[in-house]
Design brief:
The chain is α/β, with parallel strands linked by helices and 401 residues long. The protein has 2 domains: 208 residues, Response regulator (Rossmann fold, 3-Layer(aba) Sandwich); 118 residues, Rossmann fold, CATH 3.40.50. The strands form 4 sheets. The protein has a 5-stranded parallel beta sheet with strand order 2-1-3-4-5, sandwiched between helices. A 4-stranded parallel beta sheet has the order 7-6-8-9, with helices on one face. Strand 13 and strand 14 form a beta hairpin. The radius of gyration is 25 Å and the shape is globular. The termini are far apart.
Length: 401
């Protein structure tokens, strides 16, 4: 009898002990990533509404880390993200520090040249996820095996807008581009897209950046007289397409062109990866979560940083692994896809590592349309009607030549 009572008491004491005292739980698998944002000091944007917040991109990364951890807690995974702000002069040193910490997934938010230089610096020590650079060369002649492109390319943005304009039966374009290299690159994308879908660029003009004040009390007076004169006596056209990635002139053009024509491209109707008014496909709840976290609206850079880290989280969940090589191989495999609140599963092209995704066509307040447009079909994925397709690519991943 005594032994029986003591046995019951011993069992009760054991049940009362904390779980970790009964059996030592396994430590979670830590999956580390970094976001390296390379800020290029320059003139402020024309509109004060576009001034970048201090946490640009980093807020999207935080939301993605939280989302990854929501699932990771049940999978025995712990997601950790390091965020670093650098300049073009310090980017290489910052990248070296991240590599020395053993971080194998690094999201890069930088321009085309810096992104390419960082990819070459990293080599096979890590997988880079490009969350900012739009250069078609990065997916073409300068593609790198170690880089995945979440940011849409210029070709994708141009094709998305062109498809919509052809649906509208507005094939006659006046193309106005800036004088900076990135403006010229965007203009090249529109020329290629026009040829691809049958649009006609009836006239081109270059707006030369001569410097000077961008926002002054009298600026609107000068613009009101300058822009109509700059656009007068143009060939008959349906729409003005602007290529102004340097943010010099395009936002001044709506309502100030000589002929009453709509404006698209870098102003007016703008192709984007994301827009804060997006509500379809569950995006309202997504927007609300971000706004509660950051106390501001989500920008494209935030969305692209979020999606970059969610790709890692999705791969970790699906493979139940934290091994960087396993995650990388799965992300690049035909079995991988990830949700992005755009109505379609997003996947990675095997020929240039570009993430396939719909492109939003937006005004200041609304999403007007989403491309690809219905009438443009493709033999494998309709999303491959946006950007450079397999047969056209100059990328030679893994080809030593």
């Amino acid at each position: 009898m005594f032994k029986g009572i003591m046995g019951l008491l011993a069992g009760a004491v054991a049940l009362a002990q904390p779980v970790h005292a009964q059996t030592k739980a396994e430590d979670p698998v830590v999956i580390r990533a970094a976001v390296l944002r390379v800020d290029n000091p320059g003139l402020p944007p024309i509109s004060r509404l576009e001034l970048p917040p201090d946490d640009l991109g980093f807020a999207g990364a935080q939301l993605a880390t939280d989302d990854n951890d929501t699932t990771g807690r049940f999978m025995g995974q712990d997601f950790q993200t390091v965020t670093v702000a650098a300049t073009p002069d310090t980017a290489a040193d910052s990248m070296r520090d991240l590599l020395d910490q053993g971080i194998r997934f690094i999201v890069v938010m930088a321009d085309d040249d810096v992104t390419l230089a960082l990819a070459d610096q990293v080599g096979d020590r890590a997988m880079l996820i490009n969350a900012m650079a739009r250069g078609d060369n990065l997916r073409g002649s300068d593609c790198r095996m170690n880089t995945i492109h979440v940011a849409p390319s210029r070709a994708m943005l141009a094709d998305a807008l062109t498809q919509f304009l052809m649906w509208k039966n507005w094939p006659r374009w006046m193309l106005i581009h800036g004088s900076h290299p990135q403006d010229q690159a965007m203009a090249d994308a529109y020329r290629r897209s026009a040829a691809k879908f049958g649009a006609d660029i009836v006239e081109e003009r270059e707006f030369e950046d001569t410097g000077g004040a961008r926002r002054t009390d009298s600026g609107h007076v000068q613009v009101q007289s300058q822009m109509p004169v700059f656009t007068q006596r143009a060939e008959d056209h349906d729409i003005v397409i602007t290529a102004d990635e340097a943010d010099v002139f395009a936002v001044y053009l709506p309502y100030l062109t000589w002929d009453p024509r709509p404006v698209a491209g870098s102003a007016g109707l703008v192709p984007r990866s994301w827009h804060p008014a997006m509500e379809a496909w569950g995006a309202t709840q997504f927007q609300n979560r971000f706004e509660a976290l950051a106390n501001r609206r989500m920008r494209e850079a935030d969305y692209q940083a979020w999606l970059s880290l969610r790709i890692i989280g999705e791969a970790a969940t699906r493979t139940n692994s934290g091994d960087p090589d396993t995650l990388r191989d799965f992300i690049l495999s035909p079995d991988f896809d990830v949700a992005g609140f755009k109505g379609r599963a997003l996947t990675v092209r095997d020929w240039d590592h570009q993430v396939r995704q719909p492109i939003l066509l937006t005004t200041g307040d609304l999403t007007t349309s989403v491309s690809p447009q219905e009438q443009y079909l493709h033999q494998t994925s309709q999303l491959d009607t946006l950007g450079v397709d397999r047969a056209e690519t100059e990328c030679r991943l893994g080809d030593p030549s």
